[in-house]
Amino acid sequence: MYLDHAATARYHPIVRSFLAELPDLLPNSSSSHGAGIQVRRKVDKTRRIIADALGVYPEEIYFTGSATEGNAIIHLGLSKRAHIITSEVEHSSVEQNLLMVESRGAEVTRLPLIDGTLSTEQVLEALKPNTRLVSIMTINNEVGNRFQLEGLSEELKKRNIHFHRDGVQSLGKYPIQAHDYGSAVFSPHKFGSLEGVGIVYIHREARISPLYGGGGHERGLRSGTLNVPAILCAGVVLQELLPHLEEYREKVERMRSMVLKTGAELGGTTLSRENGSSYLVHMAFEDLPAEVIVNALSAEEIYVSAGSACSNSSKKISRVMRGFSKNPSIVSGSLRFSFSPFDDEEEVLAACLKIRDTIIELRRGIV
Amino acid sequence: MKHLLLLKYGEISLKGKNRAYFENRLVQNIQERLKDFSYILHRRQGRLYVECDDLRVISILQETFGLVEICPATKTSPDIDLIKQVALEEMRRYLGDRPSTFKVDTRRVNKQYPLDSMQISRMVGGYILRNMPNLRVDVHTPQTRLEIEVRDEVFMYLERYRAVGGMPYATSSGTVLLLSGGIDSPVAAYQMARRGVIIHPLHFHASPYTSEESFEKVRELTRRIARFTGPLRLNSINLAEAQKVIRKETDERYFTILQRRLMTRLANRLARKLKAQSISTGENLAQVASQTMEGIRCTHAVSELPVFRPLISFDKEDIVIKAKKMGTYDVSILPYDDCCTIFLPKTVITKPRLEDVEQEESRLNMEEILEMTWKTWKREYV
Predict the structure, then answer these.
(1) Which among B248, B334, B340 has CB closest to A289?
(2) Which of A15, A37, A232, B65 could in theory staple to B166 by disulfide, Cβ–Cβ 3.0 to 4.6 A?
(3) What ipTM was reported for this prediction?
């Protein structure tokens, strides 16, 4: 049982037929001949689908190679020597780039969470006269808490401060309106489409310089041949998902409740707030390191993640978790279970029983 | 075939009656390593030659244990005028117009040949000197050395590529090599393999308390070592249950040493099973608590077979340099633990006394632990 859909989600059923119908040639979308123009039209149609979903203009949508690249474009392309506000619990693709601009002279304020979340007031209080960028994720990828920050975008707009959102855990799961933001990034493989493409929304008035030069694709912002199959697929999947968001959310919420119940019975602690994302849940067992549980469950073919998959191999497993809890045993025991609406609830229930047996077995014989 | 390579081996040529055995193995190893290339291997009068089209063969042979030098050579007939002419062409090709000091060295294997070594060297050297005005003779420290070997045919060469040396792999019996996933043990494997010892890698893990990723890392290390030895099978034993028992029943300060004694016993058992004659480890004196002289004495005490520790006197830096050179370093430093933190004791005894260790160990039913742990032995191709 795969319960790590927040790392990469199960493909939406339509992906299989999309791939089956993939033509044996997709010409280069920047070619000037008719065949190239046809591909360009298809890409632009996908751009419109995505723009509509986000409530923005198609010309404000850019395709990159990944959401990580999207975050890099914004943070490295926008922030010079100014003041930047972010949170302690951002994904590495934000944090690492902010460390870079910090070393080049920018000043970064990392807001600590209060009760596992952030408030609009916190951000406003941290503003300085030279604040140029506020970068805060919409949904945390390890705990699932949502940072809704109501009214913040208006306040920042008044002050002419760019508001960036890492929306990777949102698109295709929750309705999201991006037009109030300066920019936002999304990732199709997190909502059941193909890997290899990132979606970036940038407000048409924002000025962002490209990270590198090239053939001038994506209006000069991101040169490099487009990953056309992955882009088209993202549009197809999104169109399929959007009418069903609420129904799917209810389904994964039931799975999430099962895991929460199992965890509570075993004395686990969750840092996920009740109004957090239905698509994932955090659970920690203070007496067992998360890695041990991950390994033991893996042997039972139940795949969950210890913290975020991107940070696993770097021993910095706890940077984000430390932002949520000061208790070291919770931090090192942190697991993430994440769900797909295309999984079977019965199977998740069966997995919960196995999880219970595994944890009881692991506890046996440990001093 | 475009290229002719002359292979020189060092110590084997010192072997007396066993020489053929070593040579045969060397030839087999070369054949195994060159199997993806088209080449012809000649074996004549205690010399090996490889004819090939692809010069990547050189770098592979450079890493083949038992060879000391690879020399791209030119072949000609044993006619002295022809030798002079080819020698001049070779020198011109190699040096162009560059000034250089040089020397001609001749070995006359074919004793029937009418001229002796000195005469050949002098005639060829003189001819080159007359035709290449930028050269000067220096018989003591020449910048360029032309070697001529007169056999049924004549070989000459100017370039030499150093190879790793040692003895051909698998000319000695096997050793069970404790492979941890750290920097040292792959280097120890290399050092033993370099002396011709067959390597049986043995990895102790503690699944699920250690990760699949850490096991994968050891598989990758085994593959990298296998670049020098040919295909290896990785042995593994799961210590998780044993660790639980040791941790529960004994003073935590003895955990590491008791665990190492268990590992040594299991390695001996595996060695008997695989008919290996020794155990090898990457231990290095006083690097960590269990590798003090006292610690090593306590683990060694339970080994029936000799335990080789080829890195015992190495400095860490030297081990790192060797690991980088053999290409295992970048894998070794991947950050996966090979023992789970829940078992790690807070304090350890750095200078244990054997009597105390034995006393502590007597709290355990060692026979039962050995049996239970041995059952988890697995052997896999990586």
Answers:
(1) B340
(2) B65
(3) 0.77
